[in-house]
Design goal:
19% strand, 156 residues, 6 helices, five-stranded antiparallel β-sheet, globular
């Protein structure tokens, strides 16, 4: 009888331990870069005009193939010759990442002065903002103030 009791209690303990899901207080929720970029695109109503680029393209366009400074990123670019851009990056060096992004902005601004001057104003008001010690965002769109507010709401 005692043997059956011990076996049933052990089984109950195993079942309850398996269902507990662990301690939620010990977990720190890490920001998903891809989800954050997708949410920014959605909330800025850019889903119909931008599409996500591949990781290797991101490193080539923005970071001179420096995979040590930016460890993770997600970028959406407009494919219709417009400058709309949404990018969220996890970085080991915020200032270096921001310098790369500012260089990108200057490059596309110079190109736009020649090929699509109507985009220059939008590019000139691009947002490059850090959030915390390891997240940097780039936003180029028509309503940059709404974009700033949206990014602040999502990332702070």
């Amino acid at each position: 009888m005692l043997k059956k009791f011990v076996i049933s209690m052990t089984a109950a303990l195993v079942v309850l331990t398996g269902c507990s899901g662990g301690s939620k207080g010990d977990e720190t929720k890490e920001l998903s870069i891809k989800d954050t970029a997708a949410k920014l695109v959605s909330e800025l109503s850019l889903s119909d005009t931008v599409s996500e680029i591949q990781e290797r393209t991101m490193y080539g366009y923005f970071f001179d193939m420096d995979k040590e400074t930016v460890t993770e990123g997600s970028v959406y670019l407009n494919s219709d010759g417009k400058s709309d851009t949404v990018g969220v990056f996890r970085t080991t060096d915020v200032e270096k990442c921001k310098n790369y992004l500012n260089t990108y902005i200057e490059t596309i601004k110079k190109q736009s002065e020649v090929y699509s001057p109507e985009e220059v104003f939008k590019i000139s008001h691009a947002l490059v903002q850090d959030y915390g010690k390891d997240i940097v965002v780039i936003l180029i769109c028509n309503d940059i103030e709404a974009a700033r507010t949206t990014a602040d709401k999502i990332l702070k």
